[in-house]
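FIELD: query
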Amino acid sequence: MHALCSVIKQKVMLTFADMSTVETALEGKTESILNSCFNSVFFLPPELDVPEEEQTLYTKTMIAMNVMLRALVHNCPSSRMREEMCSIFQALLHFFHSQHMHVRTRALYGVLRMITDFIEKDWYCAANCGFIYESLIEVYFPILGQLLGHLCLFSCGQHATRVPATDALYRLYAFVKRDRRTALTEEMEKYVHLREKLQDTNFACDNLCSPSDCAKAFGGYLRPAERMDVVLTALEAMVDSNIYDKGGGLPV
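FIELD: result
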């Protein structure tokens, strides 16, 4: 486990946040920088084990990480957004395989932060053209299927990981549904209409959803390659039973 010791961790992350305002300062370096930051923060002791005299320092360090992630999304030019989003999510996904529950939970809250900031970004301004003509999902969300696979599995796990995973799923579903509703292929549209007619999913904010519900709800809005990524992630999870509930991958 890492230790807090001083304000250095938060100052480093806030410095990276400031550097993100300079267009080329972090180009090609984001993933390696984030890996270092996440390693130093995610492996801190669980919050309940942090000594009382370090609680304020702990809270400020976690806030600094959120500030850094938000800055990386909001300050990134649209021309580099796809590359940066992929780098950030890949850095976070790496920690999903940690043997430590609190590490996985922190990585999930990082993903939730990223999804929230991505949705809230001023895309009309970022596009420099007044309108977005292409799907934001298509252009800027390169690992959607892989991410959904992990979130679906964590949503049926223990409470600590289920809460951020479920919140992320609901936010992502609302965004994907809105972003792709007018760009569905004929096959995708038939699937959406079939699910609406059957009403066989229990995917709503006031209900605990199963991986099967998640897969059905998202299915009509995913491209074939994205659906395959969800399935492959579920298959991997059935092998990695130390991290996921092995039964969670079967319904997907």
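FIELD: remark
Residues 128-133 have pLDDT under 50 and may be disordered.
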